[in-house]
Amino acid sequence: MRKFLALLLGLSLLLGAASDVAAQQNLTYAELYPANLSAFPQISLPLDVFDASGIFASGLKREAVTIYEDGNPLPVESLVETAAPLQLVVAVNQGQPLDVRDDSNFSRFQRAAQIIAQWAQSRPPEVPDDYSLVSQAGPVINHASAADFVVGLTGFNPDFRAATPNLLSLSIALDTVSAQPAQVGMKRAILFITPHSDDLNMTEELQPLLKRARENHVRVFVWFIDLATTFQSPSALAFNDLAAQTGGSMFSYSGIERFPDPETYFSALRRVYMLTYFSRANASGEHQITAKANLTSGALDSSAQKFSIDIQPPNPFPLTNDVSITRRAPEDDPFNTDVLLPTTQEVKIIIEFPDGHPRPLTRSTLYVDGLIMDENTSEPFDVFSWDISKYTKTAEHQIMVEAVDVLGLQKISMSVPITVTVVKPLSGWLAWLAKYRIQIAIGAIMLAGLALFVILLGGRVRMSSLRAAQETRRANADPLTQPIQSMKSSTSVQTIPIGKNKKTLVMPKKNGTEQKEADAMFMRLNPDGQLAALPPILILEPETTFGTDPIQCSQILDMPSISSVHARLRRTDDGGYLLLDNNSIAGTWVNYDLISREGVRLAHGDMVHFGQLVYRFTLKTPPEPSKPTITILPIEES
């Protein structure tokens, strides 16, 4: 009877699997992660988008995504696809079939553990994964690095033959991925290593675990290790359904099959979009963000993210070091009653943001006695020009300033009193005497001297002498008869000799050294394939290192897709150039082909991609193009 029930359950699972292609739940989803408000009103947050097959929707453009903030659609400012780490739990369901050994005395589990360890050790350290190992007995390794995980996995050697397979290790794995908050953009996955189970209630017991995995977007990948005769058992079909409905897959191993590369499972889980947009939130409190992504299969709405923020209007106030302004006649014309200086007064202001989120302004206004005196609608917003030319009487004036930010928030400062003092010059005959006092004094002295001269000389002064004296005075007063003083130019002029032969000015070499001439270079290209207006990268050394790390690299490439040490270019003994990738994330490509570990020998004119940067490799002396060979075939007579 027991065998009959097992057979009946197996048939029902087979029928369910046959119809699962049509009834399988759609794995499409989009998820927003918590927002970063440090640069508010610019907000950045990660975004995950997966299609119906559970594959990361790579290659989305900025225009394909719309942000909804409190229900209002806003454009996306930037959308950058970047690498993200993985959180993986290896769950071992202990049972006798895992301890079956081959001719080399290696158990099936040891073969599986060897594949997993080799994969973990090959992962680049730039994007560190989070590893855990659990079994029915509980956690073995929790949230460890790759090195610690490999040590724990290779040392894990329980008594498989004494254990009974069950779902406890899978439940512990789900608890493990949920116990510690994942990093931003980190995806969660479980690799479930299990033999078959004779539990007739397996399907019912899997349902709550399946629900938890789907709700938390946990991918379950199953390595079913047992006899080949169990590959279609009820438990095998149940585990296959678990993997399919969570976006994972199942691999069956009886001892002769070849294990897949685990990275084929997880490569699609290592990407995330970094999204930025300009917020329009202008009130303190809680706000909600959702995203809509337009895929080829249709529009997809993301989960909602909420953020709370304190938003206050900008607080402007004038800098009033001098609370008094004095207007008076010009210093060189102190009795001018028509002109008073200054005619304008510069007013500077300081703008504070009490909420701690500095942001651009759209307008600032200066008010004097309630009237607009100056207004700025573009930079600079912190300086005003106050026209005071109409103030001809001493009086106190009240100035206020107003600031309006990009969110539409505005505030007017408190009024600040400033006294404009007007000093008027003297007028009337006293002003005339004071204005021409020097000329009057000189005229009086000249008259007194002339009178004294007449008295002393009297009539003895001859008219001829008087004429001679007058001519002498005229000559002395004529500027054309005065000696010209030699003026030495304050400007140093360098005289260049001019001969029959033309001379060429040669600029001195920098630091007194001669610039080396490069035999090869990389020329930057725009996305449309045209040369960019940037200086080329000259290849001067036997080895050139490209990347973002200024310490390890000789050529710095500043781009998110570039790794710290991205690639190396070596000069070979025969004078050629060998390009090697340094395990970069985005890869190094030559003529649109990803280069292998052995590298690629560059030729003149090759197009090289360092991540998303494109260059043209050029030799100083390109090789001679080979001449085509024309072979004339004889015409056969019919």
Word description of this protein:
With about 650 residues, this protein is of the alpha+beta class. It has 4 domains: about 20-85 and about 270-310, Immunoglobulins (Immunoglobulin-like), CATH 2.60.40.10; about 85-270, von Willebrand factor, type A domain (Rossmann fold, 3-Layer(aba) Sandwich); about 315-420, Immunoglobulins (Immunoglobulin-like, Sandwich), CATH 2.60.40.10; about 520-620, Tumour Suppressor Smad4 (Sandwich). It has 10 helices and 34 strands. The strands form 6 sheets. Strands 1, 2, 3, 4, 11, 12, 13 and 14 form an 8-stranded antiparallel beta sheet that branches. The protein has a 6-stranded mixed beta sheet with strand order 7-6-5-8-9-10, with helices on both faces. α1 packs parallel to α6, α2 packs antiparallel against α3 (about 145-155) and α5 (about 200-215) runs parallel beside α6. The radius of gyration is 44 Å and the shape is elongated.
Structural class: alpha+beta
Question: What is the total tally of β strands?
Answer: 34
How far apart are the termini? 86 Å
Low-confidence spans: pLDDT under 50, at least 5 residues? 1-24, 478-514
The backbone outline, from C-alpha atoms, is: elongated
Rg, Å, rounded: 44 Å
Number of helices: 10
How much beta, percentage-wise?
25-35%
CATH fold type of the largest domain = Rossmann fold
Q: Provide the CATH architecture of the largest domain.
A: 3-Layer(aba) Sandwich
Supply the CATH class of the largest domain: Alpha Beta
Whole-number tally of structural domains: 4
Could you tell me the mean pLDDT? 84
Main beta-sheet strand count, sense and barrel state? 8 strands, antiparallel
Indicate the percent of residues in helices.
10-25%
Under CATH, the homologous superfamily of the largest domain reads: von Willebrand factor, type A domain
